[in-house]
């Protein structure tokens, strides 16, 4: 019986570690600085991020983040963002910075609508050089509507 109890404790510890995710706040993601860097392909300057070590420690881990869902999809391409702010004051439409949006690549099709509040779980990727994508990307993401 003692071995069985030990087995259950170990099993619970391993499964909770494997399936857990770190709850991250927008303040956590704000730990980044930017500098203007010239991009030859676009003949323009872009903001290049330098991530704080606390943010770098999150790369490759499964995180949970809550924000406003933004759908910038077209007929040919799906492009979803999670934003700290609603559409009217998001990074692209208002005065927020690039640290206030996360590109989301969902595992499955999604039916969320712009400005719905969504909790998303995915693997965090940091992007400091591809100007065609956001600085933060959540891959293999799943979400749930917060009501």
Quick description:
Helix content is 17%, strand content 39%. With 147 residues, it is an alpha+beta fold.
Task: Output the helix-strand order.
Answer: HEHEEHEEEEE
Q: What composes the largest sheet?
A: 5 strands, mixed, barrel
- Tally of individual domains: 1
Number of strands: 8
CATH architecture: Beta Barrel
Keywords: Signal
Protein name: DUF3299 domain-containing protein
Signal peptide: 1-20
How would you describe this structure to a colleague?
The protein is built from three helices and eight strands. The chain is of the alpha+beta class and 147 residues long. The protein has one domain (21-145): OB fold (Dihydrolipoamide Acetyltransferase, E2P). It is globular. The termini are far apart. 23% of the residues are buried.
Task: Describe the protein's topology.
Elements: H1 2-18, E1 22-23, H2 26-29, E2 32-39, E3 44-51, H3 53-56, E4 62-71, E5 80-83, E6 101-106, E7 117-126, E8 136-145
Parallel strand pairs: 1-4, 6-8
Antiparallel strand pairs: 2-3, 4-5, 4-7, 5-6, 7-8
């Amino acid at each position: 019986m003692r071995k069985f109890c030990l087995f259950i404790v170990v099993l619970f510890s391993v499964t909770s570690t494997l399936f857990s995710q770190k709850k991250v706040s927008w303040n956590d993601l704000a730990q980044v600085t930017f500098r203007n860097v010239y991009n030859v392909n676009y003949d323009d300057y872009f903001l290049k991020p330098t991530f704080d070590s606390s943010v770098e420690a999150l790369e490759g881990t499964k995180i949970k983040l809550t924000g406003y869902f933004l759908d910038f999809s077209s007929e040919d391409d799906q492009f979803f963002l999670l934003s700290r702010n609603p559409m009217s004051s998001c990074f692209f439409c208002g005065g927020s910075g690039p640290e206030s949006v996360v590109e989301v690549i969902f595992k499955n099709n999604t039916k969320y609508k712009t400005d719905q509040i969504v909790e998303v779980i995915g693997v965090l990727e940091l992007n400091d050089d591809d100007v065609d994508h956001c600085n933060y990307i959540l891959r293999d993401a799943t979400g749930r509507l917060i009501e």
